[in-house]
Fold this protein.
Amino acid sequence: MNAKAIRTGLAAALLCTGLVAGAADGDNKAPTAANAAAQVPPAVEAALRRNLPERLRSFPQIDQVSRTPMPGVYEVRIGNDLFYTDAEGNYIINGEMMDTRARRNLTEERLEKLLAIDFGQLPVKDAFVMVRGNGKRKLAVFEDPNCGYCKRFERDLQKIDNVTVYLFLYPILGPDSTEKSRSVWCAKDKAGAWLGWMVRNEPLAKADASCDASALARNIEFGRKHKITGTPTLVFADGSRVPGAIGPADIEKLLAAGGK
């Protein structure tokens, strides 16, 4: 069940119960990062795992219960979706938690960690590689050949040197995207065919029918698993990811921070 379905199912129940964060009795520790990392009392976790599915029939299986820096409020994780609740599941919040003193979006920071992709675990056999300069810095990119933002990004990427780019064809914009991706994947010079189309608007040759392009389906499955919902999506060596096209200056900044 995706986040939209979860939230739709919760909406009706939340309209009846209200939307208030309650503090647990006796849970009055100061809101610090250390407290957030502390173990959730077994009785609290058991209560949440029991009460939320009983009271909200559409509530899926809970993957993890964690403390938050806010006293008496706990994070409930379902896949990569986050909700907040009191110790008994009497109230639940679907929204973002902000640290007003530090001016930090705690929900956003948590999601960045959850959505990070271990660069070493990328299925690079299903990508083709382009090396510029010494290739010491690394970057993985998921792109659709019919994505206009991807074309703009590829033109900007030509200005970046000393980088190894792992290009994952990610045809999500329709059947023609799949056909163009097949043409690139099945070309003798994949990088040449890709750059010819994306940077110089050169037509792609039709793929041989006997070519094994199963990597495309595997890329789609990998992307769904890791919630890659748009192109281009960039993954840097430190596991951080950026959805959408960014300019050369930002690419350089992120490569310097995490691409060593």
About this structure: Confidence is low (pLDDT under 50) at residues 7-34. The CA atoms of residues 251 and 259 lie 10 Å apart. DSSP finds nine helices and eleven strands in the chain.
